[in-house]
Amino acid sequence: MTSTKRVLLCVVLAFLAAIGGVFVGRALLPQPKQPGAALHEVLHHKLALDADQQAKLKVLEDRFAVQRRALELELRATNARLAEAIEAEHGNGPRVTAAVDQSHAAMGELQKATLAHIFAMRQLLRTDQTSQFDAAVVKALTDGQG
């Protein structure tokens, strides 16, 4: 066997081993839960939404996805400004303090928008659906605590 064939064989075997490792890792290791996954599960699979509720929910979710993305981009920008301030001041100077305040304001806006979205979704529900939704919201906010 020539050295070129040996190298090619090693590359193919390494690739196959890597793919196998990914599959084994996904099968054996627990996947981290996404924040709000339980709330999503309740909304889409446990509350038996009617067609009108589903259509209105889709509109809310589509609108919020755009808003959330914009707010997340703003948060990333404030974090970049914080990093620049830290690099420039090497301490807790006025630029760092201002950047921290901007970052907190951006986080607060994202949290307020998320809560407004949750309350808007709740308004779509019938009274027989709200207690299960409320429990999922509380669980999403308190998971991992205690």
Overall description:
By secondary structure, the protein is an all-alpha fold. It folds into two domains: 1-31; 35-142, Four Helix Bundle (Hemerythrin (Met), subunit A) (Up-down Bundle). Helix content is 83%, strand content 0%. It has five helices and no strands. It has helices at 3-28, 37-46, 51-89, 94-123, 127-142. The protein starts with a helix and ends with a helix. The mean pLDDT is 82. It comes from Sphingomonas cynarae. This is Heavy metal resistance protein. InterPro entries: Metal_resist (IPR025961). Pfam families: Metal_resist.
SSE layout and pairing:
Layout: H1 3-28, H2 37-46, H3 51-89, H4 94-123, H5 127-142
Helix pairs in contact: 2-5, 3-4
Protein name: Heavy metal resistance protein
Pfam families: Metal_resist
Organism: Sphingomonas cynarae
List the defining traits of the structure above:
2 domains; 5 helices; Four Helix Bundle (Hemerythrin (Met), subunit A); 83% helix; 146 residues; Heavy metal resistance protein; mainly alpha; Metal_resist
Q: Structural class, please?
A: mainly alpha
Radius of gyration: 23 Å
Q: Beta-strand level of the residues, as a percent range?
A: under 5%
Biggest sheet layout: none
> CATH class of the largest domain, anyone?
Mainly Alpha
Helix count equals: 5
CATH architecture of the largest domain: Up-down Bundle
* Model regions low in confidence, pLDDT < 50 over at least 5 residues: none
The tally of domains stands at: 2
Query: What general outline do the C-alpha atoms trace?
Result: flat
- Span between termini: 62 Å
Helical content (DSSP H or I, runs of 4+):
over 70%
Q: What fold name stands as the CATH topology of the largest domain?
A: Four Helix Bundle (Hemerythrin (Met), subunit A)
Protein name: Heavy metal resistance protein
Organism: Sphingomonas cynarae
InterPro entries: Metal_resist
Pfam families: Metal_resist (PF13801)
